[in-house]
Amino acid sequence: MSAASGLQRRRAPGGEARTGTPYASDDEDDVVRGRSAQRVKDGIVERSAGSGSIAAIDTRSGQRYAYDPRDVGDEREMLSHPRLTLMEEVLLLGLKDRQGYLSFWNDNISYTLRGAILMELALRGRIAVARNGEQKRFEVADRLVEVRDAKNTGEPLLDETLRMIKSSPPAGIAEWMDLLSGETWNVMKLNLQLKQVRERLAKGLVDKGVLRTEKRNFLLFDMPTHPVADPSLKDAVLRRLYAMITSKSQSVHPDEYYKEEKGQIALRITRTLCMVCCAYCGNVLDNTLAHLPSETHEEAFQRVVSLLVSFGQWPMAPDTPGGGLPGRGTATSFSSASAPKKKTKHKIGAGDADLVLAMRRELEQSSSESAFEVIAGVLNVFVRMDALV
């Protein structure tokens, strides 16, 4: 059988198919069965089935193919997210470029990566704080998480976490970070621990062409390492990090973030803020700022701490004009009421007021305010971590 006569599955070439005049062709019954409708455009006859799939025939070449119009929405969503997830960016910052492994003394990155997973799911609109008026009474880190969209993301770690949240009893943000890390006394919930997160992330970066796999000898053992294969993506992550915490200007320009991506990336400033805070709490920031003068190095670290304290509450950064994020009119939570009101001055890095303004615009374009609450809750847990004491 020739390739032209076979049925091929493709992504949709354009928008979703429209229904038109029904037709019934015996020749095409082997392609699509059941009730159907057709449209003809540019010599291509498309026929939709009751299942939602589309079968098409190119009348000029005789080639047949099929696609699911839902793939069009998936492709748009893919273009709105960067090539690397938050977890992958943090891991990439921690890896030594040539040696290809993390510091053996880094005990915080595992827990931090679990928080990054929750933030990534929130950024993608998959999870949010539960719709319940009772939640406002609790600390933002203790508010219950629920699944808003159970559709797979295509990232194995995210999809595995999403399935566990959906199938498990309700739990708060901090509790989920503990469960995903295996830090629980409840033996019935030990199965919720995510296993080999760093190794799986590294293999994912290898698949994306960012890292490569080698073997190195450590004393008596050969261990796989993952040196950087494509430094351009790590350089792009570093540029965003430097723009937020070492810039001489306090203004924020969202168009300067994620310029290397092909699509129109959503929530650019919010994503970068999450990445910077995860890098600090995961103890990978020191390595990336080692080349800076000692005074600038110290100021950059102080800037990240102030970002964590300011945005690790709900509303976020309540001391900024307009009452922070999401702004005035939102009920003040217990955690924001107890937050310190002293304003911190900083010489470098993006200003809190400018960050809040940019994030408000992103919030208006996103679907859920409560997804931002998840981010605030994770940052609040980071503030409590021993690394910040």
UniProtKB/TrEMBL annotation:
Keywords: Golgi apparatus, Lipid-binding, Membrane. It comes from the Eukaryota. Pfam families: GPP34 (PF05719). GO terms for molecular function: phosphatidylinositol-4-phosphate binding. GO terms for cellular component: cytosol; Golgi cisterna; Golgi membrane; trans-Golgi network. GO terms for biological process: Golgi organization; Golgi to plasma membrane protein transport; Golgi vesicle budding; retrograde vesicle-mediated transport, Golgi to endoplasmic reticulum. InterPro entries: GPP34-like, GPP34-like_sf. It is a peripheral membrane protein. Residues 1-39, 319-343 are annotated as: Disordered. It is found in: Golgi apparatus membrane. Belongs to the GOLPH3/VPS74 family. This is Vacuolar protein sorting-associated protein 74. The lineage of its organism: Eukaryota, Fungi, Dikarya, Basidiomycota, Ustilaginomycotina.
